[in-house]
Amino acid sequence: MTGVTGDEVPVTSFKTGLQGHLFILSHDTELRIEAETDKGVKLVLCKGTAEVFGTELVSNHEYSFPPGARLAVYTWYGCEVVVNGDRHKCYKSDTTPMVKFLNLQVVVAQERERRKRSVLNGPAVLVAGPADVGKSTLCRILLNYTIRSGTKPLLVDLDVGQGNVSIPGSIGAQIIDHPAHPALGFLHQTPIVYHFGHFTPSMNSKLYDMLVSQLAEKIQLRYGALPESRYAGCLIDSCGWVEDAGYSSLLHAAREFHVYTVIVLDHEKLFVDIQRDLPGVHVLHFPKSGGVVARSKAARKSTRRESTRSYFYGMKDHIPLSPHSIILPFEEVQIYEVVESDIPSSLLPIGETAEGIKPSVSKISPSKQMITHILSVSSASDPDLILTSSSMGFLCVTDVSLDKSEITLLSPQPAPLPKKCLLYSEITFMDMQ
């Protein structure tokens, strides 16, 4: 690893005019960059070849990354990069896991071809580990390498605290048919999404496991209609809750998706436990990259808020959106919330426990307490099917008028709503636009 060295001199990119510091990287080296929290960072690849989390950079093209972004510019053969940002927030490292990741990709690709010849579903790979070890980054790298090889895999996002497929508080899956944008990530195109309503599975582990099962079943149905995706397989990004009930949920997900390989990052005990409890599954253990930095609670909260904001308003300076404020009479919506069973054990049938009772929903009336809360639009018309039905989109309650019996909603699309059944969530979003 090297810090600031003599090659990091002030320069101006000839092709783009970007002023910054020049970094010269040798082969199998990466430049790790931490953008300041109050301003972003820009970079230009001036010479050679390089990539950001598996996405190739275009030579002499200016890339802008948002405030607080953390990224690594990796080169296989050497390159020169101009960075506009605090040079003391940038450092080079020749200790990277990229060769291991590429070797892993080759093994999975070979298994994919073997299964395709046998007319079997493509391999499902689950990435596991505690929070802030680089699970989502590894998924992004492997997905990008898979796309660059001509295959369109499925990304399955089970991390409700992050929201890589939809807003935080949900799980989902989508086909990845284009490499991720270096700064924006993957575009969300027609994903399958299920509403959970919390940032951690521990708030309702029974509901979480039920939704994971439902998502796995939905994906199997989609495989039947899209053979190309069936043979491509899927990459599963799990959440960082790996203790006690969280570990049980992790095993549940692995079994529901019939995983071929589990990659454990930076947690030896978890690696050993999964080897014991999932016989027949390939389990690998990788250390986390030296560039992975633990996030504070404030940073996590900010990331979630920005993810929700971008759902309605798009990405700042990249893909702006214009959401709609719609006012609906109370009778045009039916709002439900998830409820846990409160039946005393003495009233349950013989041999049945409260653990075996599935969560259900109960209808609630619009109230002032709903303001700023997120609602999901269920694809179900029957309230009994809400929890097992996918979400069509999300709304934010901005006002409730009890006098007029009207609710005002921030919506990505104009009225009318595609369905009337809405599911209440504990997730809030303060619309400051």
CATH homologous superfamily caption of the largest domain = P-loop containing nucleotide triphosphate hydrolases
By CATH reckoning, the class of the largest domain would read: Alpha Beta
Q: Quickly count the helices.
A: 7
Mean pLDDT: 90
List the domain count as a whole number. 3
Going across the major beta sheet, what is the strand order?
14-13-12-15-11-16-17
Fill in the CATH topology of the largest domain: Rossmann fold
- SS-based structural class? alpha+beta
Low-pLDDT stretches are 1-6
Alpha-carbon distance between the termini?
Answer: 43 Å
Count of β-strands: 26
| Rg (C-alpha, Å) | 23 Å
Main sheet? 7 strands, mixed
Shape: globular
Beta-strand content = 25-35%
Helical fraction equals 10-25%
The CATH architecture of the largest domain can be named as 3-Layer(aba) Sandwich
Question: What does this 3D model show about the protein?
Answer:
The strands form 5 sheets. Strands 14-13-12-15-11-16-17 form a 7-stranded mixed beta sheet, sandwiched between helices. A 7-stranded mixed beta sheet has the order 20-25-24-23-26-21-22, with no helix packed on it. A 5-stranded antiparallel beta sheet has the order 1-2-9-4-7, with no helix packed on it. The chain folds into 3 domains: 10-93, Sandwich (Jelly Rolls); 98-286, Rossmann fold (3-Layer(aba) Sandwich), CATH 3.40.50.300; 322-428, Pre-mRNA cleavage complex subunit Clp1, C-terminal domain (Elongation Factor Tu (Ef-tu), domain 3, Beta Barrel), CATH 2.40.30.330. The chain is built from 7 helices and 26 strands. The protein has helices spanning 98-117, 135-148, 205-225, 227-232, 245-256, 268-277, 297-313; strands spanning 10-12, 19-25, 29-34, 41-48, 51-52, 55-56, 62-65, 70-75, 79-84, 90-93, 124-128, 154-157, 170-175, 192-195, 234-237, 261-265, 282-286, 314-315, 319-320, 324-329, 334-339, 360-364, 373-378, 391-401, 406-411, 421-428. 23% of the residues lie in helices and 31% in strands. The two termini are 43 Å apart. Strand 18 and strand 19 (319-320) form a beta hairpin. The chain is of the alpha+beta class and 433 residues long. Helix 1 (98-117) packs across helix 2 (135-148) and helix 3 (205-225) runs parallel beside helix 5 (245-256). The relative contact order is 0.11. It is globular and about 65 Å long.
